[in-house]
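Fresh eyes needed here. Have a critical look at this protein's tokenised backbone.
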Amino acid sequence: MIRSITRPKPAEEVDRLLDDAGRVFVIGCGTCTTLTKTGGLEEVAAEVKRLTEAGRLVTGSVVLPVACDELTAEALAEHGDAINMADAVLVMSCAFGVQTVARQLVKTVVPFQDTLFIGKEKGRLLFDEICQQCGDCILGETGGVCPVVSCHKGLVNGPCGGTNAGKCEIDADKDCAWTLIYERLEKLGKLDLMRRLQPPRNHQVEPRPGKIRLSA
């Protein structure tokens, strides 16, 4: 299961971003942050309690099914009165959800989280980064293992000198990405791909902000 992985900001930063907003409406997300336990029903209730105890008036709260999709506008409309009474809206979703909510409202919108990466669930509440969305994919030459995110150093031309018994020198509990690539290519009978020199990375394949029109 793929999710946007988030980490709650320190309470002090959230309070600073809310500034003098005495009345706050709180929004959670029923998908990514519910799964990662950073913005689901329990977490929204806990933040409402914290804000209330800090002297702020919470005008209402809701956990949207998917904070980042286009149905968000309809969901927000159902809570229009409570949102209008608020000085600010605190969004406990990933950055995609925060921006989606902000586009629908003429209201101060504050993120509760820092969005870290796109991750794949590996175990209960354990996620591994799988894609940096770099726009220059080499998975076809690395056996489907991405060295840009799987290697601590982001090396795209083979292992460094610090790999030891298949483990990373930076994190001894982490498999060396290039050992995984070697093993995968060996099984596929394509070890020759490791001899191919990858050119220097283009770190801005698509100029920012990214915008693209796909052909029909």
